[in-house]
Amino acid sequence: MTEKFFGASIKRREDPRLITGKGNFVDDVRLPGTTHAAFVRSPHAHAKIRAIDTAAARKLKGVIAVYTGKDLSGVNPLPVGWLIPNMKIPARRVLATDRVRHMGEAVAVVIADSPYVARDAAELVEVDYEPLPVVADAAKAVEKGAVAVHDEAPDNVCFHWQLGDKAATDKAFAGAARVVKQSFRNHRLIPNAIEPRAALASANPGTGDVTLWLTTQNPHVNRLLMAAFVLGMPEHKLRVISPDVGGGFGSKIFVYPEEVVVTWASRALGKPVKWTAERRESFLTDAHGRDHYSDAEMALSADGRILGLRVKTIANMGAYLSLFAPAIPTYLYGTLLAGAYQTPAIHVEVRAVFTHTTPVDAYRGAGRPEACYLVERMVDLAARELGMDPVDLRRKNFIPKDKFPYQTPVAVQYDSGNYEAALDKALKAFDYKAFRKEQEEGRKKGRYLGVGFSTYVEACGLAPSQVAGALGAQAGLYESATVRVHPTGKITVFTGSHSHGQGHETTFAQVAADELQVPIEDVEIVHGDTGQVPFGMGSYGSRSGPVGTAAIYMGAQKIKEKAKKIAAHLLEASEADVVYEGGKFSVKGSPGRSKTFGDVALMAYLAHNMPKNLEPGLEAISFFDPGNFVFPFGTHICVVEVMRDTGQVKVVRYLAVDDLGKVINPMIVDGMVHGGVAQGVSQALWEHAEYDENGQLITGSFMNYAMPHADDLPRVEVDRTETPSPVNPLGIKGAGETGTIASTAAVANAVMDALSPLGIKHIDMPLTPGRIWEALRGR
Amino acid sequence: MSSITIQVNGVAETREVEPRMLLVHFLRDALGLTGTHVGCDTSQCGACTVLLDGRAVKSCSLFAVQVEGRSVTTIEGLAKEGKLHPLQQAFWDQHGLQCGFCTPGMILSACELLARNPSPSEGEIRAGLEGNYCRCTGYNNIVKAVQQAAAAR
Predict the structure, then answer these.
(1) Which of B33, B137, B143 is facing A21, going by the closest CB pair?
(2) ipTM of the complex in this document
(3) Pick from A156, A509, A512, A776: CA 20 to 30 A from residue A43's CA?
(4) Same domain assignment for residues A601 and A674
């Protein structure tokens, strides 16, 4: 047998270029004659544009053009990719023409021969604004008399959505021994991939072709939407390349105004046009995440069985609908409110509202962190109310391992699970009893230690296309892979998934090399180029593992089938008698009669001696459309110490036991968990995108938006259980988001556990020293 | 325009530059050394970190003209004769990078950290890297990489 790569911690093949400065990020791409774009952005959250004077900017030496929204009147508004019945879809123009609706909205663009000159000129563009009243907060936006963000939504409601059986839920509450209620603020975050968004468009005036280098997680989707819906140009004349991309976390999924404008400008000028966001622009214009207000009620029996859950949520959409915004607080949120528990009745209502803020869309986890935080906090509050241990209450309500596939009352069917196994493994590593003893002793000395659990379930591997379509998605959510075997037996795999840190060039090669029984060095993974990859839906929702690699697996099977036919012909044996082992086709019972994979590949291209009716060549394309989502789960345990006098929280220990199904590369998956946990911990304790009442983003830079440094975070202890998913041929569940989804609740639960002797049940995140100190005052 | 000469990775580079040109743009745009990245505009992220006469500096916070006559090492200049620097090797071995965008700056900051303190504790490593953001790794494996490089010295 060829060496088995699946399951091995193979060092990443992309690293040599990245550690030596030879990466190729969009801003690194150099084309002769490149011009540079700088955007003029609104300082106001809401204003009428009375006039724009570009004369002074145009006069500056080095300025090539200045465009306003009027110049781009032929460009359509940005599309919305997920429709909810009766929703309001206000037009979002790439450059605002009459009104601006959030701070940072672009109103004009300068193109100049250097980025410095472009910026100088942008400052010379005079915009005459008439400031208008502002509503930045989602709860205030739905109050009577609130200023309307859009005329077509006078009450600021974009849509009203609900899921679950309301009557059954009401009945569950009527029969409950206890009802626990809590309001939650799941505050707004800014994704902050370290590479700012960038776009470089190069139109070829001779052919009419445009190549767009873009920081995108899904180049084909971006091309389709830009070509067919926004710019009205032939799809095949636009090539989108997303080379090395420096992190995405959701924020690089969407079609943004800037890439449309530079593409349009490049066609207008016949020159390459480049734009790279400054970080202040990233803060103001990358789609934000979260931003919910929720009221939750949990109905319980006296002995701690969860009988029902009722949730009412206000979700802030921002000033316009970003591409997938409607899906986030609905199908990626409401459907996860069962968590790991056999809650028989759930009802959730969501009001999605417009405000004068940056649009909100998917940010790592996207809806699922909000659901997990709410459910796991409610479970802790219920345990406290009933005087039960939070572990016992969880265990009592877990969906047992013999009930999978499990149909929840909120539409989804969990694929597989063994929640107790993950919990037990985590508890064993943690030594829960010893901790409670230490906590008890600490409390006597005025030391406030706390432990928080998060026994999460999440959904990833987006998604069965038919289901997604029925729920409003304007796209299919399969993935494609083309496996091309070259005449020498070397292999190029073209995947529609996109890597922006996930390490696909390594893990996807592991899968392909195993399936085709070749050395991993013989496999090259190509991604992120619509000119090379036939089609793809890209990477988000932890779909590259469960959907993207499954397509490669299937493509490899097709290759083996055809190769076997050729081998049988060459070996003068019946196909049924030919086996493929160790990279060789041989005849059963006479191992001496064999052909290597390379022999067969060569013959496929020489075609001198092929079976009848078989075409030359050895290449296969596969589209994998999963039958269901996959549902990773696990137990995260966080230990904190809260300083009584200062309100500071120190994360003392963090354990994650995740079940991600089968794991291709444990080293890479561990890394995903580490990074995911960091982002979730950071939401619980530090990060917060805050607007003032005038709609000014007051956390608009790294100086005042609290991203964690190395010395803020704990070391994360990672372990796993393994429950394969039946949804895809490799048993993979997906790993990119679990850390973020699980950890926020674990940290918040730990802080509330630490503060429980002081009678504190809940403080809204982020749990900054200031907020905790406020809560502790007078206690 | 001013004519300046800077030693970059051991080579004297002379260019005519605008006085306001930042060192990072001199490296990226004038010399084509795009391994040094720009991740913010407030000198917090550290992606642009290079060594200036052996000291880690944020190249977005210096004008190129300020560095006239001095010596700059960028990520492109770390590997010698085709052999990775121990920190580059350690970042690879320990999976200390994911997207790789912060990595050049992180490695150069770690270079200076180890020059100052050849055997740092975990806490000293974490504190020593506080000028650099990473959004992917949670710093777990970055710390391990620096520990490996320290042990290899």
Answers:
(1) B33
(2) 0.98
(3) A156
(4) no
